[in-house]
Amino acid sequence: MKILMIQPPRWNxxxxxxxxxxxxxxxxxxxxxxxxxxxxxxxxxxxxxxLDPLLESFSPDVVAITGVxxxxxxxxxxxxxxxxxxxxxxxxxxxxxxxxxxxxxxxADVDAVVLGEGEITFKxxxxxxxxxxxxxxVKGLAVNREGTLKFTPKRAIIPDLGRVPLPDRxxxxxxxQFYARGKWxxxxxxxxxxxxxxxxxxxxxWMLADRAFRVRGLDTxxxxxxSIDEDYIFMSDDNxxxxxxxxxxxxxxxxxxxxxKEYQFYGRADKIVNNTGLIEQWRKAGxxxxxxxxxxxxxxxxxxxxxxxxxxxxxxxxxxxxxxDIEIIAYxxxxxxxxxxDFERVSDYIDQMDLRDPVFSFLCAxxxxxxxxxxxxxxxxxxxxxxxxxxxPYKTTMPRQAxxxxxxxxxxxxxxxxxxxxAMTYEVDHMASIIDLLEHELLPS
Length: 445
Fold this sequence. Notes:
By secondary structure, the chain is α/β, with parallel strands linked by helices. It has helices at residues 13-19, 25-32, 44-47, 51-58, 72-85, 96-100, 119-131, 205-208, 218-227, 244-256, 269-274, 276-285, 299-304, 311-323, 340-352, 370-375, 400-416, 428-442, and strands spanning 2-7, 38-43, 62-66, 90-94, 112-114, 141-145, 148-151, 187-190, 193-194, 214-215, 232-235, 262-267, 287-295, 327-334, 357-362. The radius of gyration is 22 Å and the shape is globular.
């Protein structure tokens, strides 16, 4: 069977290109489950003009596409093009948004929606298509039947990640030079865990796996790391060090295997504070960059978003990472009720903690999360394309012009008003261009 897998175009060409692109690990993982099929992967972020000729020359039996919430209209447009040019092709969509809001894909151009983790479901789907057996036998699907999605029984999460083989990175060979974040280019991606047991109200990740947290076999992770050519590695876990014992064993295994790479983790402040020795060991094994969700600088606001964390713990975690000379990318939430003093206090905190690479994200309540319905009365700029954390679709306490000016000034003060260029993830000139893009996007000329 011929299968075309598609990473859709960027939702905001200039901004997302400036921030950086990661490899489509989810699609590579799906392909790893199907070694006997003829598979092509099209990354439309770099190769968008190739879709039409590829549909003609490759003539796929199945097209699978993924996408996040802000890419919904883009994904729908791509599916429409596919059905217009190759109407007999079976189209499948999956990913976080498709899982939480499958009815958004109740459209003529979609033949099936994969719900939840896709590796086993997609494999069984292709087998059913090959055998011409009813798709109702495949768990974890929503199947288009005369314009209405019909749901098959729910599929449980994959309990043993050992059932998931290595991603097929050969499919992205022509694109790998472009995968990057800041000065880390090219950058490969893998994972050691899946899921998150916490319930931050602004996040949908914990909902995708019913709060379950699982670890990948040590031997599999080591084999995967050996297979990656890139020296820079993004561990795309929700919380890389949540299982402390497992993380310690993985760290020892990496060192024992003689793997010399530089790693980027994502994790929580409390895990860093309570396991400093583990962070020290990972530093020796190559941990060079840590993405940490600080979110807010007051306990009141942290409690409001159900972060289960405190300002004191955040402070201590940042201090530990700095002492270990680990690059910090600290994420902060900007909420619609921010007043001028809130923006000022966040800027002061950045200076106080000497944070070189802060990221300021507008609070976005994603469809399917408890916060989504709560925030609906505040929506003044509707549309899924605004749910990208780079726009604020809600009514603001401050006048919107002043609110967006204060937001852009967070970046200007953090990156352009200080002298720490050598330690930054992005070059100063690059950050200046990103800030200019934000200003153009948010502030009317």
